[in-house]
Design brief:
Elements lengths: L1 E10 L2 E11 L4 E5 L6 H8 L5 E8 L2 E2 L5 H8 E4 L11 H6 L14 H7 L16 H13 L5 E5 L7 H16 L3 E5 L3 H7 L2 E6 L2 E7 H5 L2 H6 L1
Parallel strand pairs: 3-8, 3-9, 6-7, 7-8
Antiparallel strand pairs: 1-2, 1-4, 4-5, 9-10
Length: 230
């Protein structure tokens, strides 16, 4: 469904990605793992067209997309939950959801307001609150729900649960498990290995702008040296 091959990217004169490669199939949950500053967010930004690829190819459903602008990539069926959430602070929760509503995947059973609230029921009582009146956890749930309202073919979460209280993290992981059970294709960046290994099909470990290891949850669980090093 999605394949990156030899992707390089720079910020000015500073190179950030060095030949990144990985792939994901429809219905898979795939992770990008690694310490801070290793290129995970830059990889996501490059997929979304926000940081141009200077070399390599990004192929989505058989078509190269690395030269497309961000809005065109989003319309192909990518739903991004960005690091920092970036919800609209001066819109209500309801307006945040409705302003992005679309059916980019062409689904016969698209995500609606009711469907996303069934995944994150905590949000239902906050529908008329402004974005800046929500807690950090509620904002993260809203950011995920907002991405789902575009009915993406691929859902991308950059730091899915960073900085959130344990109870909120559990609610988000529960929601992501529901999405996996429905066959959604999900790319996740997060540092919670225990939770990721329960939900993800495959993992990609990054170091210094490269993918240095790829494998299944079972292979990662059995590799204490890998987890310690990276």
């Amino acid at each position: 469904m999605l394949e990156l091959e030899g992707i390089e990217a720079c910020y000015g004169a500073s190179q950030a990605l060095y030949g990144v490669h990985f792939s994901m199939q429809a219905g898979e949950v795939v992770t990008l793992l690694g310490r801070n500053g290793m290129g995970k967010t830059t990889t996501v930004r490059t997929i979304m067209g926000m940081t141009p690829a200077t070399a390599g190819s990004i192929v989505f459903e058989g078509e190269e997309i690395q030269q497309l602008p961000s809005h065109a990539i989003a319309r192909l069926g990518f739903g991004l939950v960005p690091e920092g959430r970036q919800i609209f602070p001066n819109l209500t929760l309801r307006e945040n959801l409705l302003v992005t509503a679309a059916n980019h995947s062409g689904s016969d059973d698209p995500y609606t307001l009711d469907r996303v609230l069934s995944i994150f029921p905590r949000l239902e009582d906050r529908m008329d609150n402004l974005g800046n009146q929500l807690s950090g956890g509620e904002q993260q749930m809203l950011a995920i729900a907002r991405a789902l309202m575009t009915n993406p073919k691929v859902l991308i979460l950059d730091e899915a649960t960073e900085g959130l209280a344990p109870l909120i993290r559990e609610e988000i992981w529960h929601g992501l498990k529901l999405l996996k059970s429905r066959g959604e294709s999900i790319l996740i960046i997060d540092k919670n290995l225990d939770a990721l290994m329960k939900i993800a099909d495959r993992h990609n470990v990054m170091e210094k702008g490269r993918v240095v290891w790829s494998g299944t949850s079972g292979e990662l669980a059995d590799n204490a040296h890998l987890k310690s090093r990276y």
